[in-house]
Design brief:
Length: about 170
């Protein structure tokens, strides 16, 4: 299923213990914190062990967001049990440097297995060890995420409601 909270789109597959996320839209510190705290909470509650983090289209990550990630969020993330991350690299040079800085300076918080990719399909394949269902996951993502980007922004105002807005009826 694909869900949207503010500018964060995420897909999950409980059987694979996988979350895939991508940011689209504007960013401010409050949205950023709410989204990443929500991802951590969801991952903890559902025992997620693999993340596909697509940072390719992420807006510029500001200094406040960088400090918050390094000092507040990464220590929390380290306790989640996410052991495998497929990271789709940012297209913006600034964000690529932010990722590099966080990976180097905060490496003690990173899981043992982080791989970098230029596209999400390759990351998904690596994360799932080419599981049979990944074609359906990719198709669901393309069908729902792509079509939703053309709709007007319908950002949720409450922090991670119990029932996020589904983008598809398939579960």
């Amino acid at each position: 299923m694909i869900l949207r909270v503010d500018s964060l789109y995420f897909q999950y597959d409980i059987s694979l213990r996988l979350v895939r996320w991508q940011w689209h839209g504007s960013m401010d510190l409050l949205k950023f914190q709410r989204a990443f705290e929500g991802l951590a909470d969801f991952s903890r509650q559902h025992h997620i062990s693999k993340w596909l983090a697509d940072t390719s289209d992420m807006p510029l990550v500001g200094f406040e967001e960088q400090v918050w990630l390094g000092e507040q969020w990464l220590p929390q993330f380290a306790r989640l049990g996410v052991y495998k991350i497929g990271l789709v690299l940012p297209l913006k040079q600034h964000n690529a440097l932010v990722v590099e800085h966080l990976m180097f300076d905060e490496q003690h918080y990173m899981p043992s297995s982080v791989q970098f990719f230029s596209d999400a399909a390759a990351a998904l394949d690596w994360l799932t060890d080419s599981a049979p269902g990944i074609a359906a996951l990719e198709q669901e993502w393309q069908a729902n995420y792509g079509s939703d980007l053309e709709k007007p922004d319908q950002a949720l105002l409450s922090p991670w409601p119990p029932e996020p807005v589904p983008l598809s009826s398939a579960g």
